[in-house]
## 1
Amino acid sequence: MEVIHIHHPYKIEPGQFLPMTIGLGFFDGVHLGHQKVINTVREIAEEKGVKSAIMTFDPHPSVVLQKNVKHVEYITPIKEKARLIEELNIDYLFVVHFTKEFAGLLPEEFVEQYLIGLNVVHVVAGFDYSYGKMGKGTMETLPTHSQGKFEVTVVPKLTLENKKISSTLIRQLIKEGQLDRLPAYLGRFYTTSGIVIHGDKRGRTIGFPTANTDVDDAFFVPPIGVYSVRILVNGVWHEGVCNLGYKPTFKEEQEPKPSIEVHIFNFDEDIYGQEVVIEWHNRIRSEKKFSGIEELVQQIEKDKENAIAYFKKTIGTQV
């Protein structure tokens, strides 16, 4: 998949792009609703014998358009989003740098410059997609703005238990620590990625060495607590137990951000400086302050047993 970054104004040369079917949306999470749009794009492209493409935006429009929003945490920051879309066998990913100037385009200007201009022959989007200044362009107006240059397919709302599958709902479940419910909406477990960094190295002194992971601030992180996780190291998945928190047993003052430390089962490798992926499965308990190291060690052993039992039951693996 080729990733193309668009900074408005973007000059497109005639014949620069082959005819394509394109899907429009923000696609945060690349959840099952998004996947329905993306798979529809690929299917139509194959039928027409043209390229398949997705257009997304970065950063989130609210960061640009709302004065009180300075930072947005994503289910899938742009790098993760691109990885997931590539897995769905799409040819092009257009990442439009969202600015006030771009947001000021009239709906018909957006269509003229960034759909017709890209040699689009078919557009796919969800029923609630909007475009152009003030979001006045909708899936109802798109056929009119197309000037007969492309066809339009509207993907209807996808629901589960009478709830719309949406990034907002998924973000709420993450916030509540209900990570075991996410596969029904995402089609997979929630993941974050980051670099393994040096920490206090206290874990190894009490028999539970951990991989201290500096997760990108762009990720939406689950609430403080202890979790059953899998961690991807050098292309191999390992089971483990993760403490996400501030280590109150050892620290009187709270750090600016919580640490994410994974005790990986049956693992003894030096992975400092490596990028790893953490796959969040279920929340075991909240973080608490213990009276001393002995009580803490006993609890970590229980957490480990809990996680091992979880993986044996749900995945059937032996650790």
## 2
Amino acid sequence: MYETINSPFKLGNVTLKNRIIFAPTSMGLKEEEYLEKLGAIARGGTAMIIIGDVPVLKSPFLSLYSRKGFLRYRRITETIHKNGALAAAQLHMSDSQFRSLIKYLPGMITGKIKPDEMRVLLNDTVSGYITGLTDKRIAEITQGFGKAAVLAKDAGFDVIQIHGDRMCGSFSSSIYNQRTDRYGGSAENRARFACEAVAAVRKTLPDMTIDYKLAVRQEDPHYGNAGVLKEELPVFVPLLEQAGVNSFHVTLANHSDLSDTIPPASHPYFHGQGCFLPFCDEVSRLTDLPVCGVGRLCSPDFVEEQLKSGRIQLAAMSRQLIADPEWVKKTSSGAGSRIFTCTGCNRECLGGMQAHKGVHCIRDRIKTANESLCHERKVLP
């Protein structure tokens, strides 16, 4: 049962023990709790864990370039490896001009500016920032992808994923990219930044497996502002393949409401299982490279069907593996009926992220409350 889910898969120069990947997720947890959660997901059978938002350049936040940051990433890869999974670094370059937002810091600190409002303010800076970057700065950033990839490999990462949504996605977008030089205008020009980032990694690490998070924007109805229009995929996919990618991780473009890219069960459009898989269908028609699907993948029966049919070759999950880290182990042991299925409520995962309380599952809160109640009953006279 679930033979395809649990079958090995060759991805570039690495072999995944099964077809399930933990999608990049900003957990917002203290280090020990974060490592504990990653370890649990790895022990639960997941083949590979993607660590999101690894900075491409030196950063005031933890990055691969500082000793403290490098050692933190090494602890992450060691935790993942000793619990049986591979580790991927999602190389990330912000497309927000934070200097222009300093005036909003007091409002953030006092809570007068809510996370969703701050997100809108950040997105409002993107077009001007992308359009105004000099060629010299662009070259520093794209070459930085190669330098960061080398450091990531040294820190123990097995695979590199290029974050095709933030700066790569904004250069790709006709909404944000208003340049009139070789990086703007046509779809071919707007693909140039992302292709140069991929090529920089391929040049520095010829044998490294490179995955590309391909962010797709759609109209009618409109969702996403960065990324690639579905109609532009025939331009972008071959160019990225020529630049050196080994696979595509396909999802909805960002820079809109988080509840679109992390859709709840009540979402007006992306409410069903496999809600982003139609984007995978578009990409698969254009390449023979493996395609990883994502978007409310919960049911083992549904995931097995998508993999077995060849619609996707890999399945990425975040909320489902946070809800039940042993999802994979249960499918391989015949205990699929005991899986705790993500309900898509978004209360403690996305809600926890937005409230700066860290990503958890409502299941954990219920369990903690029940344990506390049982303890109180035991100690009552």
## 3
Amino acid sequence: MKHEWRKHEKNLYVPKEKPELITVSNQKFLMIKGTGNPNDKSFSDKIEVLYSLAYAIRMMPKQGYTPEGYFEYTVYPLEGVWDLTEEGKKLDYLNKDELVYNIMIRQPDFVNKEVVEKAFEIVRKKKPHPLLDEVVFDTLEDGLAVQMLHVGSYDDEPKSFELMKQYIEENNLEIITLAHREIYLSDARKVEAAKLKTVLRYRVKRK
């Protein structure tokens, strides 16, 4: 049966529109870092190279190579861990040019270094990308975290972050780092801003 992350991992990808406490175990990712405004072309170029590799892995059996443990699955959504430069943190408003990010696409458990190297090989042959060498394969673990579903424009996210911070305070928790994770359940190119669905997540610890 095809693994659909929306159906089989609802606790991570289909949260409620109110804060909740979860535990996120170790996950594998293809990742690429950057700085600056996410509306710039450099950001979309980074998304493009991540998806080219993610789909190369997803379609490997059709390329004549089936990784050990491979199973049918839906490619995971784009995610990003967001922070600000030191200069950006000094401002009392959000300057998107001062954003620091690490965007990524989660990979199934069967994916290992060998599978990723094969994906790089496929992409280099089929459609070489100038940012390929900037992509890293690694694991991340959010651990204890507070998350919620934000519906609406990315620019309205501060309203949801305030709800999350209130929940954190009320439940004797504290944020480990103000860098936060976003999981993009909607394609901003196809969905109007008011209907965008984004999972927001803070890593936390108990006081």
